[in-house]
Amino acid sequence: MADEMELDEPVSPQGSTGNNNNILGAPSGAKVAAMQTHTKATAVRSIEGWIIMVTNVHEEADEEAIQDKFGDFGEIKNLHLNLDRRSGYVKGYALIEYSTLEEARAAIDSAHNTKLLDQTIQVDFAFVRPPPGKGGARSGGGGGGGGGGNNRGPNNRARSGRSRSRSPGVAAAKEDDL
Amino acid sequence: MSATNEPFYLRYYSGHSGRFGHEFLEFDFRVLGDGRSATARYANNSNYRNDSLIRKEMCVSSLVIDEIKRIIKSSEIMKEDDAKWPTKNKDGKQELEIRVGNDHISFETAKIGSINDVTDSADPDGLRVFYYLVQDLKALVFSLIALHFKIKPI
Hints:
The complex is a heterodimer of chains A (178) and B (154).
Chain A: H1 29-34, E1 50-55, H2 63-70, E2 78-80, E3 93-98, H3 101-111, E4 114-116, E5 119-125, H4 134-140, H5 145-158, H6 168-177
Antiparallel strand pairs in A: 1-3, 1-5, 2-3, 4-5
Helix pairs in contact in A: 4-5
Chain B: E1 8-18, E2 21-31, E3 37-45, E4 54-61, H1 62-75, E5 93-100, E6 103-109, H2 115-119, H3 124-149
Helix pairs in contact in B: 1-3
């Protein structure tokens, strides 16, 4: 795995080709503002673009309804409108990919808390940077043994009292990967 | 955005050991300290046709976590009990662990081949909740992985 690229952007090996994003350096102030989620986390770019999530999507919405509303902000490169496995209706969320940060930002700013088929939808980035400090060092790092060790801490705590915690396979994977 | 500060942890595991070694799929979500984001991890090990381990880690926004919580809460899985569910067997097992606020569940059961296994079980209503919730969670995780990393998770 591309651990050496994961210092800041765990999943963006395309850093050097980012659309005018100085991804590897410190983003400009405007850039940082454009990348902020509603809860002030910082969005990250995915392999081929920026992914936003839409929630409280009406169960009878279809891809055309999503296209009609979100196509205005840029070309939708990918759309996942998953169905409830039990009812067959829309589960309630959509994931949309745009090529550029500007398009994703426009969709979030324009469509958040607006109506889609009579329901008020929420719109925000799906993927963010790990917070600085412990979180960042942990999941962003991958480079240091400390990262891996840290990784297990909270996990084990969450499973305290159970005889069987991590599966051996996952443990082995960690050793291999980190 | 809803109160994202309540503790939240989700882990799902499905696997078995057999001719191709330990084959499994596992993912988990854990909210990070300030509640603004959560780490999500995904591992899929299939040795079939020399496939190798896929392991991915990503950080998702609070809106994604809110949606996962909504899916969990509306499923009412937290009211279920795995006491009468089929126990793990040579075909493997599934585990589902969820902590939301003060509620915590940790279920273990056999793999479910089809809805018939659910209908024929001693607790069809409870197992059905589990069966569909797991499918809905997997669908979300696979979409996140596919869009973020541009790989087919399975």
